[in-house]
Write a structure and sequence with these properties.
The protein is of the alpha/beta class and 117 residues long. It is 45% helix and 25% strand. The mean pLDDT is 95.
């Protein structure tokens, strides 16, 4: 099995996912990340997922597509997905594509964790 591109921890029934890579641009990498997050989602009956982008400087459109798919899978299982610590330049893309309406985005991981309560 390939080395994980994610650091996954559990905080108060919330699965906290941090990205190892600064740039999430490569198709194969994006697929591996999406597959890993999907496995996490599928293991939970009602997944509570926090994706922390603190380390991420660049995201490709394919990565955004993967996020949309993950969001759908979380919703299918009556779960909740939060995004946090998105770089201002990346957030611009969320605004332009109106994905800021689809995702619940928080400035910090702490705020995102509190929002699950």
């Amino acid at each position: 099995m390939a080395e994980s591109r994610l650091r996954i921890s559990n905080v108060d029934a919330v699965t906290h996912v941090e990205f190892v890579d600064r740039n999430i641009l490569d198709e194969a990498n994006i697929q591996a990340i999406a597959d890993e997050i999907t496995r996490v989602v599928e293991q939970a009956s009602e997944p509570k997922l926090l994706l922390n982008f603190a380390n991420v400087d660049h995201l490709s459109s394919a990565a955004l597509g993967a996020l949309i798919t993950i969001n759908s899978k979380v919703k299918e299982r009556s779960g909740a997905l939060r995004l946090a610590n998105i770089d201002p330049q990346i957030y611009e893309v969320f605004l332009i594509t109106r994905l800021n309406k689809l995702f619940e985005i928080h400035e910090t991981a702490e705020e995102a964790l509190e929002s699950f309560a």
